[in-house]
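Page 42, continued from yesterday. The earlier attempt failed because a stray header line got pasted into the input along with the sequence. Redoing it now with the clean sequence only.
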Amino acid sequence: MAKVLVLYYSRNGATAELARRIADGVEQTEQAQLCLRSVPPVQASYEQPSGTDLPEKGPPYVNKQDLAECDGLIIGSPTRFGSIAAPLKLFLESTGDLWVSGAMVGKPAAAFTSTASLHGGQESTLLGMLLPLLHHGMLITGIPYTEQALSHTEAGGTPYGASRWTGANGDRSLVDTERDLARALGQRVARLAVRLAGERT
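This time it went through. Structure tokens are written below.
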């Protein structure tokens, strides 16, 4: 089995909902095993956690061993002024030891995001999340235009990764194209992880 880590930060639940649709795609892939994790808010330190080791709800918090053991990685963050949210960035900045050891080299990776406004920085956030993954030597994948929903979406969804538009009040539900593209991204990374993990064994 190839383990695919879906890792995200979500403050109000929109990014978490998108993560679950991506997780569906992973779970629908033969020989792929889902590992769903989140990151704590910035008030909690990764070296000396304040509060509990587990969130009050949702998946467990990530640790660096989850990254080292995964065969594929899909990371997600809401957009903050066109960029990655601080909690996920903080965690990624703590992974220098994995970079030194080459633990992530050659593994497939992708990204996803959510925004309150339709042109609120989805693509810049996705591209920003991919940069540290490139430094880790990961194999970046997006969503190809062979996915028909990418050509028809009037909401989220980009070739750089899955995305969603929540509306200013965060009350806009996922639409079919956003859901389909999220699931497709999960399947795409999972299939690559299965194939590449087989080559490494």
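Notes: The radius of gyration is 16 Å.
Reminder to self: strip header lines before submitting.
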